[in-house]
Amino acid sequence: MSRLATDILIVGGGPAGLAAAAAASETAGKCITVVDDNPNLGGQIWKASLGRFRSAEARNLIDALSTGKVHIVNHAQVFGSLNTCTLLAETPEGSLELEFEKLIIATGAREMFLPFSGWTLPNVCGAGGLQALVKGGLKIENRRVVVAGTGALLLVVAEFLKTKGANVVAIAEQAPVAKINRFALGLWRSPTKILQAIDLKRKLFDIPYLTDCWVKSAGGESNLTTVELTRRGKNWTVECDYLACGFHLVPNTELAAVLGCRIEEGFVSVNEYQETSIENIFCAGEPTGIGGVEASLIEGKIAGLTACGETEKASRLFTRRGKARRFGDTLNKTFALREELKLLPNADTIVCRCEDIDYGRLTEFSNFRDAKLQTRCGMGPCQGRICGTATNFLFGWKPGSVRPPIFPVKMENL
User: Fold this and answer.
1) How far apart are CA 389 and CA 354, in angstroms?
2) What are the start-end ranges of the E strands in 53-112?
3) Is residue 150 within 8 Å of residue 289, measured between CB atoms?
4) Per-residue pLDDT tens for 12-40?
5) Sign of CA dihedral 306, 307, 310, 313
6) Which residues make Cβ contacts (< 8 Å) with residue 180, sequence separation at least 6?
7) Which contiguous run of DSSP H or E holds residue 312?
8) By C-alpha distance, which of 184, 179, 183, 174 is closest to 127?
9) What distance, in Å, lies between the first and last C-alpha atoms of the chain?
10) SS3 of 377, please?
11) Would you say 103 and 281 are in contact if contact means Cβ atoms under 8 Å apart?
12) Does the pTM of the predicted model rise above 0.70?
């Protein structure tokens, strides 16, 4: 087992983590380390394209990290802790002890999936998941793709896939058109976002954007071949090669929970300086509330500055954070999941993919704990990350407690 000691440890190399590292690097004399489980920095949103990203913010972060003031450790997956000042990570070379004085958790979020008939077929992917696969080298040219689910991510993914040569057949948005129109009218408060929306609309002008529409089922034998869509009582089938489907984001709060940080309503509770209920442990970005890239960047800066004792500088960012958070809250309300989606699974629809537990079996139980004890639902390699959020939406079940290791780990590294 190897060891690494640092003044400030940042877990997560996405926007929030990078912003925290850049802000902290402005203070001389601090040893700053960013640990990320991916081969490249950038998180899910900038992964594989950070150096080519059009955002000025991304370029500034790259410049700040290139000064050598920040130590980067890639391919390191944090799976537990020895105590509140030492984390354990798994790397290709074995286990790694990470000792720190202050910790910033910036573990981001993952996609939420809802089960429907055929959702386990090959080529049925998460919206962000398919985007990540294409960024990683998957050839998508001339492939027919249906993008479905909810949220602004659908438009971003559709535009990206189109630039890579995909034939995006349709964008199916489950939110009602009235909510989307109200949201669009409220964008006058954010001129920059109006320009972004207009630009996206221009690029996607030839792709049907269907509101009040969602996937009812996916069909095919060995691979996906068709998708059944439903809209205002009408069902029809679309031929396609890929289905990119995503229903919101779920915060990655497991590390914070294992360390004993207070979790409220599914998010890590923090004060105005992004400090958790545990002294010297901070949290920034999606684990504190799904708010988007802008909110993550600002929260990361506040956490980085505060960890270095620069509370006055951090407080100057409170107003910007509040504005970004309000926009995120509006997005979440606009694209809230509709009740009809709870009717998607049939009795034989698999809900827990790791343990092959179907919807009909789960209806025999009244809570996640009983279902877990009797069926092993949530006990597979994903450790309930998929079925836990699905059953929370379908049945209102609260996921169980988080226990280390928070990711599957080789026995030799335990």
Assistant:
1) 14
2) 70-73, 77-83, 86-91, 94-105, 109-111
3) no
4) 988 999 999 999 988 777 899 999 988 77
5) negative
6) 173, 211, 334
7) helix 311-315
8) 174
9) 10
10) coil
11) yes
12) yes
